[in-house]
Amino acid sequence: MNGRRVKVTIPATTANLGPGFDALGMAFQLYSVVEMEISDHTTVEMMGKELQGTPTDKNNLLYKVAAGLFQDAGLAIPELAIRASSEAPLTRGLGSSAAAIVGALVAANHLAGEPFTREQLFEKATRLEGHPDNAGASMFGGIIVATMPEKPGDPIPYVRFSAPAGLQTLVVIPEFMLSTEKARNVLPQVYSREDVVYNVGHSSLLVAALAQGRLDLMGRAMSDRLHQPYRAKLVPGLDEILDKATEHGALGAALSGAGPTILCFFSSDEKLEKLRAFVDRVMKGHDISYRVMILQPDENGVQVEIHQR
Ligand SMILES: Nc1ncnc2c1ncn2[C@@H]1O[C@H](COP(=O)(O)OP(=O)(O)OP(=O)(O)O)[C@@H](O)[C@H]1O
Ligand SMILES: N[C@@H](CCO)C(=O)O
């Protein structure tokens, strides 16, 4: 088992896409890298500004997830040398925790001699994240539709398909952190039948529109009543962007995952200038720092390189 360094590249992701709360995910060409090898003693090196402040000892999420995999496989937990970097910011709604979990599971699985299949790793990642949307998109790339299993340990039912040709995403990333936990705590425990039916209809329409490349339907289909209305108070600018983005060149707009990142889909570079000017106008009105990125869909999911020492 020793002498092998595993390098895993994992795409950042967005979850929900509006109405598909905890069920829809999509991967972006914005990557984290996790390198892992068995060592004499554990070292955890977090590289780059995005990972600043994450633990550099056995409390790091990457180590804990890897250790859990060895334990699940019935193996002794080894000391590990771990290095990681991330192009995506943490705690902003771009799936950093799912990327870390998927990266650690896939890397540790290789070091352990591949006791688990990709499907089993997806089930473990979903269990650790609590929902399959970001984890599925990080694992398989493209667009993922998935639900929680009937009982723990069962395989996750999912369908993966490619993002429609020409779909591009503008993301507005506010410079403040919003943990998934905090953004879930503002959601109600109970919803009206009207709101549930509204989301079933819109989420179903969105999946069909994405699968058939009906970009013309996305603005209508991306409307949500289950989480965005409650999270809007945590995310300055969200209401206005959701309301008006389609009048300024977007195909549709949504809160990315649990936020605070806001995403706008668009399909032509001509529309980008207008859309960019619109989001700048909205965000400047709220006096918070933010950055804008244009992201392309990732179709590959997690990628593994094995380096023999
Ligand atoms: N590479 C990493 N190494 C260690 N911990 C990480 C790493 N990436 C993410 N994390 C942990 O995940 C936490 C962020 O998880 P959280 O679910 O709040 O946000 P997110 O995954 O970025 O957003 P969302 O789930 O809404 O898309 C960080 O605070 C950190 O504890
Ligand atoms: N579906 C999750 C994604 C964040 O991890 C949520 O919106 O809370």
Q: For this structure, what is the CATH class of the largest domain?
A: Alpha Beta
SSE string, helix = H, strand = E?
Answer: EEEHEHHHEEEHHHHHEEHEE
The coarse silhouette is globular
CATH topology of the largest domain: Ribosomal Protein S5, domain 2
Rg on CA atoms, Å:
19 Å
Total strands:
11
The residue ranges in which pLDDT falls below 50 over 5 or more consecutive positions are none
Strand residue content? 15-25%
What is the overall pLDDT average?
96
- What is the count of distinct domains? 2
Biggest sheet descriptor: 7 strands, mixed
What are the key terms here?
single chain; 309 residues; 7-stranded mixed sheet; 4-stranded antiparallel sheet; 10 helices; 25% strand; binds adenosine-5'-triphosphate; binds L-homoserine
Description:
- The protein contains ten helices and eleven strands.
- The chain is α+β, with helices and mostly antiparallel strands and 309 residues long.
- It folds into two domains: 4-161 and 298-308, 2-Layer Sandwich (Ribosomal Protein S5, domain 2), CATH 3.30.230.10; 168-295, Alpha-Beta Plaits, CATH 3.30.70.890.
- The strands form two sheets. Strands 1, 2, 3, 4, 5, 6 and 11 form a seven-stranded mixed beta sheet that branches. A four-stranded antiparallel beta sheet has the order 8-9-7-10.
- β1 and β2 (24-39) form a beta hairpin.
- α2 (96-111) crosses α4 (133-140) and α3 (118-129) runs antiparallel to α4.
- The chain is globular, with a radius of gyration of 19 Å.
- The termini are close together.
- The model has no long low-confidence stretch (mean pLDDT 96).
